[in-house]
Design the sequence.
């Protein structure tokens, strides 16, 4: 979302069998899928790992992320 300067809501849903789905929303109500689902397995994504990172294409200004809080529920 280039130059988007409002809140972005992120969601991860983990199904039985370790199938992980990721979503984002611009209003906190309607979520759109990000990427393809994958299966968590040992050596790939097992355990409590939460984080954010920001990237930007080469030759552009630095990317950044400003996270005020996380909410994790089961």
Sequence:
């Amino acid at each position: 979302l280039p130059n988007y300067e409002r809140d972005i809501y992120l969601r991860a849903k983990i199904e039985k069998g370790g199938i992980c789905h990721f979503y984002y929303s611009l209003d906190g109500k309607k979520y759109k899928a990000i990427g393809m689902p994958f299966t968590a397995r040992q050596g790939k994504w097992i355990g409590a790992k939460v984080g954010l990172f920001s990237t930007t294409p080469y030759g552009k200004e630095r990317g950044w992320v400003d996270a005020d809080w996380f909410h994790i529920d089961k």
Q: What stands out?
A: The two ends are 28 Å apart (CA to CA). The beta strands are 9-15, 19-25, 32-39.
